[in-house]
Design brief:
With 392 residues, the chain is of the alpha/beta class. The protein has helices at residues 12-20, 42-58, 73-81, 92-100, 115-127, 138-150, 173-183, 206-229, 245-248, 267-270, 361-365, and strands at residues 37-41, 62-63, 87-89, 106-108, 132-135, 155-160, 188-195, 236-239, 256-257, 287-298, 301-304, 320-321, 328-331, 337-340, 353-357, 370-375, 378-384. It contains 11 helices and 17 strands.
Amino acid sequence: MSGKTAVAGYTHDEVEELLAQGNPGGKLTKHDLATPALILDLDLFESNLQKMAAFVRSRGRGFRPHAKTHKCPEIARRQIAAGASGVAVAKISEAEVFAKEGIGGLLVTTAVVGPRKIARAVRLAATWPETTFVVDNEINTRELSEAAQAEGIRIKVALDLYVGRRTGVLPGRPALELARQVAAMRGLELEGIQAYAGHASHVIGFDERRRFSRECMSQAVETRHVLEQAGIEVRMLAGGSTGTYNIDIELDGITELQPGSFIFMDVDYGRIGGPGSDAFTDFAKALTVLATVISRPEPYKAIVDAGLKAFSTDKPFPPESKNLPGLLYGFAGDEHGRLDFSSAACELKVGDRLEFVIPHCDPTVNLYDRLYCVRGEKVEEVWKISARGMSQ
């Protein structure tokens, strides 16, 4: 047997009403939820968070987890309570949501370009002055400074350093020249450097990943030294990721890590390997999608109600069953998934509930409005994914 069978199928509103009433009898479980549903195992989530917090604390570093992974103010609050200095966010729209929820220590990791986004950044900085923005060129930097001066404020900025395949000013002298320009602008205050080598995080094999990440991040450390030798204070050098958290922290000069996926984990991260292992098991897979078997059209074949709209599809591998080894999932359209259980030690029937580890956590979370937080099988809380869709 596969486990639990659907009981009630409560909607979002019905679940929240039951929880508001104190969950009478404590009988509301994840198997009572309408599916597909995004499930967070609180025990595993809390363990992941405490493990990362203890790790960086033991090395005398800080961490500012990337909230683009979860887009959830309640998770951000718990990360800060565990010792994070704040959270990193991908876009100004995410920053606006988190600021409205009272989340401090925001680092916006994508440059705000164009007059309207700059105006939004100035408004946010005026009311939430501890927010830091990134810059990587003189034109955008000057525009941001002029807008800040017009409002009579100073905006904290960090140099976005090119250590990967995305944005940033080149390491070394180009970064020094930009830092000098920032220092000369009355509307800006230089906090330090952001250096994110995201492509290093998924290099397969720990030794190769370590070599590659050190090659990338050593450029950031060297650039910090160049700036400091020129008399420019660098209070922050932020970088790192879930896949390189225990690699980048070895480099002197990095002050804080920005891991995101460690709280949830996914199939992708499980494949990258750890020291002496082909699997990456440092953090537990706390996030799943719960689905219901809705049809049994053939022997050893079943259809669930979670398809392309329930999982991100940017990876070349499918979701994986959480508890049933040998069960194979295949996408069968927008609303459906096709299961092959011919090699699994189970017999599926209509109404059975199954949990799937997601291929890629960040974009999958962005498909949902809520996280159903469970301890064991009991639903304890519902957390809103308030920054869902905030990509502008």
